[in-house]
Amino acid sequence: MGIKEEVKMHTEEVEGIIIKYLPPEEGFQKTVIEAMNYSFLAGGKRLRPMLMLETYRLFGGESTVIEPFMAAIEMIHTYSLIHDDLPAMDDDEYRRGRKTTHIVYGEAMGILAGDGLLNLAFETALRAFETEPGNPKVARALSILAHNAGIYGMLGGQVADVESEGMPVGQEKLDFIYELKTGALIESAMLIGAVLGGAAEAEQEVISRVAKDVGLAFQIRDDILDVAGDQAVLGKPIGSDEKNEKTTYVTLRGLEQSAKDVEAISNRAIGLMQSLPEENPFLNGLLHYLIGRTK
Amino acid sequence: MGIKEEVKMHTEEVEGIIIKYLPPEEGFQKTVIEAMNYSFLAGGKRLRPMLMLETYRLFGGESTVIEPFMAAIEMIHTYSLIHDDLPAMDDDEYRRGRKTTHIVYGEAMGILAGDGLLNLAFETALRAFETEPGNPKVARALSILAHNAGIYGMLGGQVADVESEGMPVGQEKLDFIYELKTGALIESAMLIGAVLGGAAEAEQEVISRVAKDVGLAFQIRDDILDVAGDQAVLGKPIGSDEKNEKTTYVTLRGLEQSAKDVEAISNRAIGLMQSLPEENPFLNGLLHYLIGRTK
Questions:
Q1: How far apart are alpha carbons A253 and A238 in whole angstroms?
Q2: Do A176 and B28 touch (CB under 8 A)?
Q3: How many contacts, defined by CB atoms under 8 Å, are there between A and B?
Q4: A55 Cα to chain B: minimum distance (Å)
Q5: Distances in Å between the alpha carbon of B21 and those of B10, B129, B254?
Q6: Which of A26, A78, A122 to substitute to test the interface with B, most B CBs within 10 Å?
Q7: What is the pLDDT along chain A (295 residues), one digit of tens a residue?
Q8: Residue A95, phi then psi, degrees to nearest 5
Q9: What ipTM was predicted for this assembly?
Q10: Is A123 in contact with B146 (Cβ distance < 8 A)?
Q11: Which end of chain B has fewer surrounding CB within 10 Å, N or C?
Q12: Do the chains contact at B143 and A136, CB–CB below 8 Å?
């Protein structure tokens, strides 16, 4: 079985877990719940909860304590997409071929649905204490979840990105944006999996570095594909970054150097993973897949 | 000393505690932090953290574990005001005589500042585990914080309110809106204080009912003042609800009955407080003040 089919199977497994945490569409607040579920169920590979679960398994984790965290990180990812799509932000009408949340439910409900999902993420993750009351690992995982989603994580990267539009961006600021905007949630996913799975401190540090490298390689690869990719294969128009006058990794380092950098960063990530005594073949395949290596 | 002066002194005490939790305005994400702090520092009586602290003291609490929760509930209150003021919601340019956040920082930054504060609220409250690691009361308090702010609390009430604009609203729906939109955060404040202060289950139940009554009485009184108040004393225009075709408690029950109801609800709340063996004279004064009784 190829990695694509394997990922697909795991996506189904993850979906089965996370949808259990969606609220029923009832009560006077029904509309916002519909809007939240509409966005949450828009599909995607569920990479963040998948990375979380597989890192948890890498360290021998096998309890359901991980499940509310899997749902929570996908809720945070979804809320960020809803708010990114709003007219005051990227003003997008479509995402993954479906109308965006504010187009279907109106702008006020789009704002509230995003707020609702961010809040529900913490409400849901806190349910892990029902499985393991007083477990300090759960408390630590909650702190990672909050830290990496907020101003020192994903949201911080998003702010710097919004402010950079139409302006020249230097390498330091671009690194900041890349590390936080995409990297912070990937790090959150893998690190929560490691912490709850019982990884030692040094191993948590390795996982954290791997996750940052994977996030960075994933994003540089995206920049390269926007310049040099095949529109038919990508399923989206190429050249959008140049059109939007967006500074990317390729703008700053050039196409050739960017390709070399992805290779180096990917090799570093894979080397780090191999330094761990634990093994999870699917997780290795998934990481290779994310950073665009076919072998 | 009159209750107003007492409240003022306590506002200063609470401010001194909660501002310690504001993030420094630095880094590439500086603008959003400025916007968050601008909103947070816009003043107000800090009633929610004050109610939390005084309920905590009522049950004998005297540790700093309450402090991050005090900051967190004010962050949640502030985020809800920022998002309420957005053009897609109430579209307000001014609040407490200052320009609203999106007017000063732009709409995108207004959305992100609200998101940032909601996220920071949980990040901050989780710091209570630093003071008391593994304490199940902290876990319980976190769950109350999340539950009462989200779709089954404040946000749920806000959604029902937004959807009711320009539509006839029945008593059941109005009760839902009142209980959740204002009441849920007041209940959250007092209940977290009670839980962390070590109140027994039955006492927590009493506090929960008192908080709901106080929230309801506070809001009905606001409706009455909008019809029958003195603009000069209130410092805001009266008759705004009628102008906005807003169904209020007074619309449904009439002025006279509403006044009787406030009296009955207030008496019930005060009777419940008196049923507790513990005593905090300032908290009693504060509750009287909130529900508009001068004696």
A1: 19
A2: yes
A3: 158
A4: 23
A5: 18, 15, 44
A6: A122
A7: 899 999 999 999 999 999 999 999 999 999 999 999 999 999 899 999 999 999 999 999 999 999 999 999 999 999 999 999 999 999 999 998 899 999 999 999 999 999 999 999 999 999 999 999 989 999 999 999 999 999 999 999 999 999 998 888 999 999 999 999 989 999 999 999 999 999 999 999 999 999 999 999 989 998 898 888 766 555 566 777 777 778 899 999 999 999 999 999 999 999 999 999 999 999 999 999 998 754 3
A8: -145, 130
A9: 0.95
A10: yes
A11: C
A12: no
Q: Whole-angstrom Cα distance, residue B58 to residue B149?
A: 24
Q: What is the pLDDT of residue A233?
A: 59
Q: B100 with B92: CB under 8 angstroms?
A: yes
- Show residues of chain A in contact with B110, CB under 8 Å: 88
Q: Is A99 helix (H, G, I), strand (E, B) or coil?
A: strand
Instruction: Choose among B31, B120, B152: nearest Cβ to A159.
Output: B31
* B86, A111 contact by CB (below 8 A): yes
B73 and B188 in contact (C-beta within 8 Å)?
yes
Asked whether B76 and B64 are in contact (CB, 8 A), the reply is no
| Stretches in chain B below the pLDDT threshold 50 | 294-295
The DSSP-derived string for B40-89 is HTS----HHHHHHHHHHHHTT--STTHHHHHHHHHHHHHHHHHHHHSTTT
Which pTM value belongs to this model? 0.95
Residues in CB range of A136: below 8 A, 6 or more apart? B129, B133, B134
Query: Cβ contact (<8 Å) for A142 and B126?
Result: yes
Q: What whole-number distance in Å separates Cα of residue B282 and Cα of residue B268?
A: 19
In 3D space, the residue among B180, B181, B190, B249 whose CA is nearest the CA of residue B221 turns out to be B249
B281 CA to chain A: closest CA distance, Å? 34
Identify residue B38 by its one-letter amino acid code: Y
Task: Give A139's contacts in chain B (Cβ within 8 Å).
Answer: 126, 129, 133-134, 139
Structure tokens at B158: 């806000």
Measured CA to CA, the distance from residue A52 to residue A283 in angstroms comes to: 10
How far apart are alpha carbons B52 and B188 in whole angstroms? 8
